[in-house]
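Take a specimen:
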Amino acid sequence: MICKNYSKYRRRQEVSLLIHWRQNCRIPSKVPLFTSIFIFLSCVAPAFADRFADQAHPIFKKHCISCHGPDKQKGGITLHEIDSIDNAFKNFQLLENIIDQVEHEEMPPDDEDIQPTDTERETLIKALSEVVERVRSGNVPQRAGRTTLRRLNRNEYHYTVRDLFGVNFNPSKDFPADGAGGEGFDNMADALFSTPTLLEKYLSAAKKVIDSVYADPALKKKVIFKLPDTENDPKSAARQVLTYHATLAYRRRLSEEDLDPLLKAFARAQQDDKDFEQSLRAPLTALLV
C-alpha cells in the first residue's frame, strides 16, 4: 500500500516540479514539451541516485549496519553492500521487506538503545519505496552484459589467413586443440583461452605465412601491390598496402590509431636500411598475430 500511495505522490511531485522548472529556467517557449521533458528527465536520474546515497544509506549505516554488516549478519541479512542505487536495484526484494519492518516499527528491535526518529523512518521508507517502484515499473537503467575477448579458433585462423594472403598450407595445424566448452562448440568465446604457448604459435605461424608470401613472386606481387614511384614515396606506398590488408584483417574501417603502429614498424625497418619490400615484413606479420 505504501508503494502505491507513494507512487501517486511522486507522480504529482514530478509533474509540479517539471512545470516549475520549465517556467523558471530560461528555455524558449517554442521548445516542444517533449524536448523539455527529455532534458528534465536527464537531470532527474542522477538526482534520484544521489538522493538514495545521501538519504537512505546514511540511515542504514547509523541504525542497521551494526547488526547487518560485514562483522555480524543477523538473520543472514547484510545491508552494508547496498551503498549505491545499482546495488539497491539488485536487492529490491530485500528492500520491500525492510520497508514493511520499518513501517511497523519492528526494526530496529525495541532493545536497541538508539532508535530512528519518525523523520528518519519516513525518509527511509520513501527512498526505498521509490527504488521498489522503479524496479516494478521497469524504470531502471539497462546495464550491458560482460563482453568476452574472442580470438579465432584454429579453423577460423586457417581460413582467414588463406583469404587474406592466398597461402596454400594450414598455418594453424600445430596450434593446441580448441576447447569445446559445455555447449560442444569450439568457437565459444568463453572457451577460447589465450595462453603464452598459443601466442608463441601465433607468432610462428604468422612468420611462416609471410615467408611463404615472399617466397612466391606472384603471390608477393599480389600482396605488395603498390611500390614507390614518382608519385608515391615509400611511406605513401606502404600506407596504401597496409591500409588495404589491415582493413580486411580487422574487418572495419581503420583509424589512424590502428594504422600508426604498422607504419612505425615500417619506418624502423627503413631506418635499418632495409628495402621497401623487406620493410613491410614486420607490419604484415603483425596483422596475423
